[in-house]
Amino acid sequence: MNFKNLPKIELHCHLDGSVRPSTIIDLANKNNIDIPSKDLEEIKSMMVAPKDCKSLDEYLKRFKLPGLIMQDKESLDRIAFELMEDAFNENVVYMEIRFAPLLHINKGLNTKEVIESVLNGIKRAEEKYDIKGNLILSCMRTMDVESSYDVIEAGKEFLNKGVVAIDLCSSENERFSKKFEEPIALARKYGYRVTIHAGETGIGENVLEAVEILKAERIGHGVFIKDCKKAYDVVKQNNVTLEMCPTSNLQTKAIKDIVNYPLKDFHKDGIKVSLNTDNRTVSDIDLSNEYDIILNGFNMNERDYKIIYLNSVEASFADENTKNKLRDYIN
């Protein structure tokens, strides 16, 4: 199958992990920002994680350079627009972009302004291209729990206006869910949907707690439910969709090699999975490549593609009119 030409849906894509290297240089020049180099290949080498990355924490170091640039309204707007444009160019018809607003307030913007700027870029792309986007607000597990309330409150007025969900991300420690139970409960009360990074770094029990304590409807990654029967069972029984990101998981050592990637086994057993890039620049990947790696690599067929596509539609946080349009692309 030629996945470049097929409609695709992406539910797990980080804004700051998907910035064009050329844009980093251009914005640094425009805004007089000091960066280590102005050579495109050197900048790319600082933004793309090595194939032999030793851990998730080493992988996350690739976000430092974009963080220097993404501190003003125009830059945030442009980077969001370009991500949507890149996705459209490989026939992604719907995507949910996630980012942590509190990483972008270092030069005077407030949290609301950060969120609004990214939404403006998404909306500009929607006006120009046949692609629909929504925004997921991530809270950093490495920050104080109280900081998550700032994100939740700032994003509240944009619910159903582009903002659809709340997320927890960054380094994954054991038993993090209990610590964030109250802010995530408040977010659900306001109307946020919930997706949580969990089970990415060998702790399957984190997926269990993300579902049971935080009421996660989707799990980012979730690879290690393969080693935790309780987590596996709760995901399957509750129809929780896994947002799986093969290349990223290989780089962060969630898996030793792609041959052992559990997506096909999950899929065959009735667990709902979606395919995603995680970070297009950091992993040097697009969604067509991810589909090729998994569906062609594991001898999956057109029926598998359609099931994964439709699972992604149902698991998306889009409104029903958007979902109907997405279904029509392959029905």
Which key features would you list for this structure?
15 helices; eight-stranded parallel beta sheet; alpha/beta; 331 residues; Metal_Hydrolase
One letter per element, helices H and strands E, the order comes to: EHHHHHEHEHEHEHEHEHHEHHH
Helix content: 40-55%
| Major sheet: arrangement of strands | 1-2-3-4-5-6-7-8
Overall SS class: alpha/beta
Tell me the Rg in angstroms. 18 Å
Q: In percent terms, what proportion of residues is strand?
A: 5-15%
Count of extended strands? 8
- Indicate the mean pLDDT: 96
Calculate the terminal CA-CA distance, rounded to whole Å.
17 Å
| Tertiary shape | globular
Low-confidence stretches: none
Q: What does the largest sheet look like?
A: 8 strands, parallel
- How many helices? The count is 15
Brief write-up:
The protein is of the alpha/beta class. The protein is built from 15 helices and eight strands.
Characterize the structure shown.
There is one protein chain. The chain has 331 residues and is an alpha/beta fold. Helices cover 44% and strands 15% of the residues. The protein has 15 helices and eight strands. It has helices at 21-30, 40-47, 56-60, 64-69, 73-88, 111-128, 147-155, 181-190, 205-212, 229-237, 246-251, 263-268, 287-296, 302-315, 320-328, and strands at 8-14, 92-99, 132-140, 163-169, 193-198, 218-221, 241-244, 273-275. The chain has an eight-stranded parallel β-sheet with strand order 1-2-3-4-5-6-7-8, with helices on both faces. The longest helix has 18 residues, at 111-128. It is globular. It starts with 7 loop residues before the first strand and ends with a helix. The mean pLDDT is 96.
